[in-house]
Amino acid sequence: MARKSLIQRERKRQKLERKYHLIRRSLKKEISKVSSLSDKWEIHGKLQSPPRNSAPIRLHRRCFLTGRPRGNYRDFGLSGHILRERVHACLLPGATRSSW
Q1: For the chain, is the Cβ count within 10 Å smaller at the N or the C terminus?
Q2: Residue 94 pLDDT > 90, yes or no?
Q3: What residues does each domain of the chain span?
Q4: Across-strand partners of 79?
Q5: How many Å from the N-terminal Cα to the C-terminal Cα in the chain?
Q6: Where exactly are the transmembrane stretches of this chain (predicted)?
Q7: In a 10 Å sphere around its CB, with 0-12 CB exposed, 13-18 middle and 19+ buried, how is residue 78 labelled?
Q8: Is the dihedral of CA 83, 85, 91, 97 positive or negative?
Q9: Which CATH class is domain 61-99?
Q10: Which is higher by pLDDT, 8 or 97?
Q11: Strand residue runs (E) in 1-100
Q12: What is the spatial distance between Cα 36 and Cα 43, in angstroms, rounded to a whole number?
C-alpha cells in the first residue's frame, strides 16, 4: 500500500491539471497560429506561468486499490498482482485466466 501522502499528492496534481487544462490548450493553439518568433516567446512565457504540478506530464497512474505506482494496467486501473488476484477470484467480468 502506498503512503497516504503520495496518493493525496497525486490527487492534488489531477485537480490542478483539470483546472488549468483549458488555459494550456488555448495557449498552445495561439503558439501554433502566431508566426513571429517574439510573439511565440511571449506566449511561451505565459504558458510557463501556471503551477508546475498542473502539467499533464507530471501525472502518474496508480493502482485504484493499493496506490501502487508501477505495473498498472490501463484497462482495469489495477496493478498486476491485484489484477491477477481479482481474475482468479472471478471478480473481473470478461477477464480470463491464461492456460496453455
Answers
A1: C
A2: no
A3: 1-60, 61-99
A4: 72
A5: 32
A6: none
A7: buried
A8: positive
A9: few secondary structures
A10: 8
A11: 72-73, 78-79
A12: 11
